[in-house]
Amino acid sequence: MMGPVIETVGDIGVTRVSRWIFNCYIIHQGGRGPIVVDPGLPRVVDDLVPVMAELGLGLDELVSVCATHAHSDHVAGAPTLATRTSGAVHLPGASQVYLSGTSPRSPSLRAIARIWPTVVDQPMDRHGVVEAVRGARMAGYGTGAGMRWPQNQPVDFLSDGDHLPGASEWEVIAGPGHTDDSTAFWHEKTQTLISGDAVLSVGGRAWITPETVDEEASAKTSARLRQLNVKHLLPGHGRPVHGEGVLTVALNPNEGPKGFTLFSSGLLRCLSGRISSTE
Q1: Is residue 250 a part of any domain in this protein?
Q2: What percent of the chain is modeled with pLDDT above 90?
Q3: How far apart are CA 64 and CA 167, in angstroms?
Q4: Is 247 within a domain?
């Protein structure tokens, strides 16, 4: 079985633990203790324990578990982490209504199909695929079943302008568009952005996500994030991107690698026909 892709960027104190397109991040500098961001796979803890040990950290030191939004591929591992540690789960404030029964909006199959270049830009990991399917039945949303969350599992909530619990230099930035509860986490000192799915990457370049529930909100989020002088982009999906002005040269939603427009148009027509035939 292929192991996770592990990448530590020492000068910013963040380690990526990734299986296929599912990126999870450990923030391990500048706070009271380690913080896990976007633990999307149900058994991601099995990958995190040895990585944290290599960093000289123990799971019992975990301060908090934070998510950029409540899609299952960003939170399915959060309940297990919370039960095995003293770290509380923190979801975006806009996710709160989903726990009380309000149905969340999620991108359509047509919208999801638009990010195919990012899907093929990271090495396939069978374990990651299986875990993502399992995760959709355990916690978070993204299917017709609405929001799933374990009974009696407490959650705290993050609002725009807040700071990550245990890491006060990381600021919470509301970034709706991909979903209504999408957020990003910004570290001004190191100019690092954990973008969730508001910004992806493909071919070594940042890409404002075309996978949205609200294009107008996404455009406003894009404009806000582009004002940041990002040198380190850590996306929810795609490889990290480093360099000066990462978002200044970010691809727009309708852009992509060579052949993107032609291929996407054909794929979307195919999906449209399939969806129409089942209605």
Answers
A1: no
A2: 84
A3: 9
A4: no
